[in-house]
Amino acid sequence: MQEEIVIIGAGQAGAQMAQSLRQGGFEGPLRLIGDEPHPPYQRPPLSKKFLAGDIGAEGLWLRPPAFFSTNNIDLIPNTRVVAIDRAAKRLNLENGSTLSYGKLVLATGTYARRLPLAGADKQGVVTLRSIADVDAIRESLKACNRLAIIGAGYIGLEVAAVARALGKEVSVIEAQDRVMKRVVSETVSSFFATLHLSHGIDLRLNTGIECLQGESAVSGVKLTTGEVIPAELVLIAVGAEPNDQLAAEAGLDVDNGVLVDGCGQTSDPDIYAVGDCTRFYSNRYKRSVRMESVQNAIDQAKIAAQSLLGEDVDYDPLPWFWSDQYDIKLQIAGLSEGYDTTVVTGSPESHKFYVAYLKENQLIAVDSINAARSHMMARRVIGETWRDGLLPEA
Ligand code: FAD
């Protein structure tokens, strides 16, 4: 009989890992343990359609509930793993019980980064990572009129768009001089800033925060200028940190993410890790990377499953990502870091264009705005030598 595989974390990567193992012919015992009450679900709609109320929780499920029993995958919800005993190959669960494993897969994802800000512990100060978070935010939004969002990254801007459509007064406060600065060029930042301003968002760039004000509940955000932005709800959307504590405490190699090789294997040959919680060396980018995307969760899990089943694999993906804000779809192919030239095709005014990023005449990334064909094409051609006119009209 094949030895038991246990996956910790029933999210995007964990669910994919379980499915790929079964599809790849693994017939041994397979457990998928998650600390949330739900079956594995997609997170991208949390800050989009689910927050807007356009879809219910069932619309988030990654697989139909029967999928797990049909495929003989023992899905164990509401269960948190608190320690890994590598010598005994045993897990300690929060409920006091233990579980043994033959091979272990960590798919523990990330948690929302908090800010060391005075007042951040007040009622009405929230982060967004899970269904439970959105349920609470939706409930608060019903009773409040003014929302302040700290951080103009994807999640902050997506929530701003939804809240505005719900008729709320929304302020977005960003320390940097432009929105989504970490991931897109000035052209794209400027397009999205204009978009949000045109929808009535109070966008504050280059803005520092002194503290969050209020008695037990938050009532406003005090800026370093002394100005107070009134808000009954404050969303902190300043990025995420990897859930790598379990791995670190078990003595695995960890460096802002569980370190894995191109097979998804950690420093312990019996333990793999996949998805947002991992960091790996990318030959493509000549540095270690930690990715937070559906693409990475799915592709890395597929590769690691193949490796667990004995295949020779090496993971070095072309990353891609998307974000929906109002009626605009931003799709990103590749990482644009280090570009020396940008080429804009189409016009931002028409809300349909793309920006190609080149480094030493090589196409390295493309941001497509309402230009899905360019995005798909970009994913195919990046890595080949850039030639003028290789991409289609926006
Ligand atoms: P997760 O999906 O986070 O799953 C990890 C699971 O492990 C969680 O359920 C967690 O509770 C559980 N867990 C952690 N520790 C333990 C433990 N000790 N015991 C048991 N269970 C544990 N990506 C895109 O590509 N496009 C988007 O538009 C996009 N939008 C997003 C919007 C939001 C609001 C968020 C939060 C994320 C978004 N992402 C998007 C990112 C994407 O959702 C993640 O990259 C993806 O979910 C990563 O999958 P994962 O399985 O690694 O982690």
Automatic annotation (TrEMBL):
Keywords carried by this UniProt record: FAD, Flavoprotein, Oxidoreductase
Cofactor or coenzyme needed: FAD
InterPro entries the UniProt entry points to: FAD-oxidoreductase/Apoptosis (IPR050446), FAD/NAD-bd_sf (IPR036188), FAD/NAD-binding_dom (IPR023753), FAD/NAD-linked_Rdtase_dimer_sf (IPR016156), Reductase_C (IPR028202)
Domain FAD/NAD(P)-binding: start-end pairs: 4-301
Gene3D superfamilies per UniProt: 3.30.390.30, FAD/NAD(P)-binding domain
Residues of the Reductase C-terminal domain: 320-384
This protein's name: FAD-dependent oxidoreductase
Taxonomic source organism: Roseibium salinum
